[in-house]
Amino acid sequence: MKSRFESKRLFFLKAVSPEEQQNRQAEFETAFLDHYPAVYRILVQLTGDPDEAEDLALETFWRLWKTPPDHTDYLRGWLYRVALRLGFNHLRANRRRLNHEQRAMQQSLDETGTLKPEAQVEAHIEQERVQKVLREMPEKQAQILLLRYNGTSYKEIALALHVKPSSVGALLARAEESFEKLYRSGGEDAPI
Amino acid sequence: MHPSSASLRMYLDKELPEFEQAQLEVHLNTCSHCQHELAMLNHHAEETNKAFSRLATENDLSLDFASLAYQKFLIQKETTMSKSRFSRLRLLGFAATAIAVVVFAFSFAPVRAWAAQFLGLFRVEQITLLPVDISRLENVNGDSSLIDQLSTVMADSIKFTKEPGDLKTASSLAEASQLAGFNVRGVEGLQAAKIEVQDSAAFEFTLNRELAQSVIDAAGRTDLKLPESIDGAKISADIPASAFITIGDCPSAEKAREMPLGGARRSMNCTTVLQIPSPTITTPPDLDIQQLALIGLQMTGMTSEEASQFSRNIDWSSTLVIPIPSRGAKFEQINVDGVSGNLITDTQSPQPTYTILWVKDGVVYAVSGFGPAESGLAIANALK
Fold this sequence. Notes:
Chain A has helices at residues 18-47, 50-66, 75-94, 100-108, 118-136, 139-148, 154-161, 165-188. In chain A, helix 3 (75-94) crosses helix 7. Chain A is mainly alpha-helical. The longest helix of chain A has 30 residues, at 18-47. The two termini of chain A are 31 Å apart. Chain B is an alpha+beta fold. Chain B has an eight-stranded antiparallel beta sheet, with helices on both faces. In chain B, strands 2-5-6-9 form a four-stranded antiparallel beta sheet, with helices on one face. The N and C termini of chain B lie far apart (74 Å). At the A-B interface, helix 1, helix 2, helix 3, helix 5 and helix 6 of A face helix 1, helix 3, helix 4, helix 9 and helix 12 of B.
């Protein structure tokens, strides 16, 4: 499902009166409820960790609250861009804390420490494999894939990533080729 | 003539204008080369699509889910805003951009300090503060800040030649000194809450002129042209190990770095002491640092003449130039630890915050905390 454009000018101005404060709060709440699920979803896909994704998503909206864009035709693109940057920064910071085998093992156990059904475990391993590739790819390529495979159109991708719409096709083709090569080689050779 | 792979990819997604879509279809009927090319693109796209479908997310996250998240946001917002709007980390990040870069950002994230990239910064012997109207830098092009855009530009060009290791906790200053490889100074008479040591790191960064110029252009400064010669120039940085001492009730350095809102539960009773030997940055001998510095200074709002004047008074090979927001921060030169240093205080938050910066014997220090700067100065002067 394609994200809709937002063409109205955002009213995130520095409020001076209680009424303006209220308007700002109301606009922000609407934007939050509209876009939070999409931002959260893309962060879960990137990090593989719902708790971290929640923290990062909340941080994204904190940035929106603190420093809103003066004007944007595509707020979700702005949010995606901020979220992905936070996400990749977080992954780089944490890359040595937990290797992929440990993550896959952790996700194989439920809250009581019992091993989950095999199908579920396999699903987790497959997800980890995809996330590993995303982490290993050039960040820009990973971003374009995450956006595209979350239903973002070429025009929206161009707005979100500040690239020319005419270059999205080439960027996407290159990203998909890179992804597929890494995914295949990661599955055949490297442990997850 | 064959269409480009970009056009073929757009064709696949029906993203070409109607006329071009139809034209390409006609071409494909008779061109086996392009048919093969299209099949390859389609294969890559299908395999990628299959892989992404394995990422476990719920497609229908309910309004309740978003509402609950919003309530969490409000609670955390109140917690954060009741402390300081201009958080210590942010203050440190603005006030000591290069220091944040060399310790926090270089260690854990791509380069964030746009100023640092223009410096022929080799060994830090002194620090000069540069007032900057950050409103220009924070909202450029209607959305993300110039600094953030530059970070994105540079993110893909950074290659770590030595990855920073894990943050290690030391039980004493002696242990910290051993881990860090330099004499970690402590506060006489005060028991440190925690001493953490970040291992050294090294990275290379390749300048991409086109991308960097596009950010400058996006900031409305099409008059400032980066020289062609910088394209492909390789800059390397060696970031020594650093020590981070926290005194009082503080979040861990790592958590505070990652997420000022979501992760940190800051207390007003927290002072941090950061110390790192000067990083070494190597640039190609023919890279004109002076010229880049002039462009960087003009990006802060200086005129060409002002930039030249400022630059004439700076030894770029030994001076760390740190941009400070001109609004919301006050700064002054002070005597600290027997040398000349800089004090930056946040003038906007309800609870004052400060950062004291100085260089002594080749080590860069930053003491930061809430409350009056005198308490930080006392700590800085007590370092042994």
